[in-house]
Design goal:
Largest sheet: 5 strands, mixed
Oligomer: single chain
Number of helices: 1
Number of strands: 23
Helix content: under 10%
Shape: elongated
Distance between the termini: 74 Å
Length: 314
């Protein structure tokens, strides 16, 4: 048994569901006795053929076809076995089998697209104006390949979104919605935008991990609310040790009023080195050892107030 053609061409591997693999089967009497009542079967293609008699040295050929299914692409090959069984002149059973493996061209693919759906439930608004504005995003995850993807994890760290998709067939998509509430950090002139990245990671049919990401930027419009620097007794945190050789501890003197704070570390020229949203607790420890020695600025946002302290890394 051997591969004759795929879709009537000289291709040697299949690439999509519906490809037709055609096999050539040749049954030969290789002995010196006549064979009778030979039954030729190919379970995969459903073929059954009968040869009433086959003289020594004679052969008979058959053609049979199989249509590729999704499971074949996921597996990466089609293994097909043909069996022939007959009787010799003494009534003894004579049989033989042969198999042919045709490989598949699996091409896994994954895409993720993140776009603005609305701001404050208005789909026509594309900029924000104040703290508390709600930006809603759509995240569309699509299997762009030809093999089934499993264990897909979709994340959006900014909005704390984390969603699993068990299985995604080729061509299928799944859509999610997630929202972000504008923070004081998004109203500074040098940072008057929201930069948001969504990520998708999946496992293909061969156990390999593939991943994709997409970024969406929403800019501010005319600012309505402002962010005010804390003064005097309003100041609410200390950092130590300072100077530091790597780690610093941030400890609150006054408990923040909001459930979340926003922490940013700036370089001497104003470049942002670290930016993260944190839930409220008494203290935090940050590892800054990966940064060059020098002067830095740690800024804490809480509601519409912020406070900045110098940090020296030795």
């Amino acid at each position: 048994k051997n591969l004759d053609n795929i879709n009537g061409t000289d291709l040697t591997e299949f690439t999509q569901v519906g490809d037709v693999i055609t096999y050539n089967i040749e049954v030969c009497n290789t002995g010196n006795l006549t064979l009778f009542n030979i039954v030729v079967t190919d379970p995969l293609t459903g073929m059954t053929e009968n040869i009433s008699q086959l003289q020594p040295g004679d052969c008979q050929s058959f053609s049979t076809s199989y249509t590729v299914m999704q499971d074949d692409l996921n597996q990466g090959f089609v293994l097909n076995t043909v069996h022939a069984e007959g009787e010799d002149t003494d009534g003894n059973t004579v049989e033989d089998s042969d198999e042919e493996t045709v490989t598949g061209g699996g091409d896994p693919g994954l895409s993720i697209e993140k776009t603005i759906f609305s701001i404050n439930d208005d789909p026509d608004q594309n900029t924000y104006n104040q703290v508390g504005d709600i930006i809603t995003y759509t995240i569309v995850v699509t299997n762009t390949g030809n093999v089934t993807l499993t264990n897909i994890i979709v994340t959006d760290p900014l909005t704390n979104f984390n969603q699993a998709i068990g299985v995604l067939a080729p061509g299928d998509s799944q859509t999610f919605f997630t929202s972000y509430t504008v923070q004081p950090v998004n109203l500074f002139e040098e940072r008057c935008f929201v930069l948001n990245e969504a990520n998708a990671e999946a496992t293909d049919s061969q156990g390999n991990t593939i991943s994709e990401s997409d970024t969406e930027i929403v800019e501010c419009g005319e600012i309505i609310s402002t962010v005010v620097e804390m003064e005097g007794s309003q100041k609410g945190f200390v950092i130590y040790p300072n100077p530091t050789s790597g780690q610093i501890t941030l400890e609150f003197v006054h408990q923040p009023q909001k459930q979340y704070i926003w922490v940013e570390l700036y370089g001497r020229l104003g470049e942002i080195i670290m930016s993260k949203q944190l839930t409220i607790q008494d203290r935090y420890v940050f590892d800054l050892s990966g940064n060059q020695p020098g002067l830095y600025f740690l800024r804490i946002y809480n509601g519409d107030r912020y406070e900045t302290k110098r940090v020296i890394i030795n």
